[in-house]
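Quick one: structure for this chain?
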Amino acid sequence: MLKFGFAVIAFACAPFCAMAQENPLEKTGVNPDAPRNFNSYTPRVTPTLISRQDAPKIDGDLSDPVWQRATRIDEFYQVDPVEGASPSQPTLVYLTYSKKALYVGIYAYDDEPDLIRRSQMERDPALQDDDAVRVMIDSFGTFRDGFFFGVNPNGARSDALIENGSNFRDEWDTIWDVKTKVVEDGWIAEFEIPFQSISFDPALDEWGLQIIRTVRRRNEEIRWSNINRARDRIDLTNPGRLAGIDGLEPGIGLEAQLFVTGAGVYDWELDETDFTLDPSANIFYKITPSLTGSLTFNTDFSDAPLDQRQVNTGRFSLFFPETRDFFLQDAAIFEFGGEVFRRTQNGLPLFTRRIGIVDGAPVDIIAGAKVSGKQGPLNIGAIATRTGSSDALNIDGQYLTAARVSTNVLGESKAGLVFTHGDPEGVSDNTVAGADFQYKSSSLIGVGTLLADFVYLRSFQDGVSDDLFGAAIDYTGDKWGSNFVIREIGENYAPELGFANRSGIRQYTGFVRRRWRPETGPIRSYTLGASAQAVTDLDDEVEDRFAQGFLDVQTNADDTLHLEFERGFLDIRELFDIAGEVPVAVGEYRFNQYEVNAEMTRARPIALGAGVRWGGMFDGDFLSVVGSVSFRPNRHLSITGDYDYTKFSLPGGEIGIHIAAVTTTVAFTPRMFINTDIQYDNISEAFSYFSRFTWEPRPHQEVFISLGHSAMIERERFPQSFRSQGSSLALRLGHTLRR
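Got it. Here's what it folds into:
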């Protein structure tokens, strides 16, 4: 059956690849002077070398004399709305570098400066909602992974890791500087990116470089390279080339992040107060410019944001993403499996959130060491940690280790190995080992990108071993797209340092879509698609089966409408309870569901979103209603409210699930802001409040204050039953030393 699935993938993808040969430049509005074959269009630039003493002052003003000597870029092309067309607004980029840092000056001309959208000021804003410029660097020549630096006209900074051309890890923060200024004919951004803030391969003659500008009021995207709207904004498939970067002197490569945290916790039920004063440190040392060693001591995660509130209404455990800085550093090195795990993480061999968090509760990390980067042809990642014991969880301290090695092959592809050892709960002796091959071609079949991923993993636990096999093929073009994944997970496959919530299955998924782009009118695109999924046991008996059809509509302003129909089948073989309360009996269930969802772009000062999904489920009725509102009256204030109501009316009972969240940001400057998260759900009856004040007086200094409060609100007596449980206040001072 599994071999048949591989054959189906190869056969099914072929017609869509052929259809994608249509040339998107055969349309009106294309720049007649533009290169006709953007698949092979690769601009190159060699920045001017300057002395450290001549480095520009980062103030959003390009009047420094050094900018007159800088290399300039002025050839940009639209990707949206008209691929290959001349931009509506010109852009001029200046590039220069010293042996310590890369300097980028961007003059974003605008003939209507009063209409420049700049609604945010906090760190890591939603840049897609504002005018913005972005600089992306692939300093290892992977054509997959990179470093992202972006800013809007208010100077609101965004930095992130790009992983495998699709994952955007904006939880990652590093030291860099940027200033902006709005002027009478546009706006200016001035970047300083220290080479010590990124890893790089000194043996490379050229780095990958992408520069992107968005003009929000036109929903227009302008790029320097990768002129193909089938490729996502952060896709580094065909970046421009940054040449001549050599002789760098990033110092001895030592970085010490030193913190001291004073915290007080008050238990309302016991009327007890606990005070602590804890030092902590993260030490990074660049063994080579491309290989970093990291140490962490008494690791402090007080600045990690709250997890988004979820209520489990199904049979399998939920997935929460990693948000902690130490584990995000060079996270792309540890990426494994590509498309096999991109949409469904079940079976993932390494999930760093399992380190220091057990059953949702934090566990101290006494110490940790990590090596990540590149050595010769190899991409290397290794991590070892010692966690503390927990009386509350009844677990002892554990040693946990993982390693990932890969190498680039066939130009854009890579092959590698992975290894993990340890059980965070200490109940088993667990090891996982495996290999993957990730094939990529951006030119094999015309204007799209073809990915093919193959995975084999084997776990060993207390004398019992089992396997995971997986394969995926993905074609992404502007008009046509398709994705097919198959995997087999053995009954005893157990990655204790990874993530697995369902074993003993074979899973088959498929997806096909077609997009149309009207040349006139208010609609930017229509997308019609279909998807299907089947899950069987290892005897090929069907457990789950779903088939969906959908229509997506996107307006020129970026408002969206989604319509969907789903036909489903579930074979429930063990009794389970929805949200722990309403039983679902063993049996076979068939159902139809329908969905309508509409969202306004959050580029508007007030944006609304609403959706409803309804139909049958478990021989009863299902209803889900979601709503959201975003309010940004000015650049200093942002308020977002989200509400989710889900109702099951089943033979075993009825339940209504309410989840509410309010997020606010008050930004005083781009370096001083307060973020507040309030969440509640009526199943756990848990109310949480978490407010974080962050101030960076300088790029290497931090003042962080957090205030938290937790309470229980009994749903039968809401709102009179508010019962406080705990309050916390923490002050953290941080300073980063670099040599």
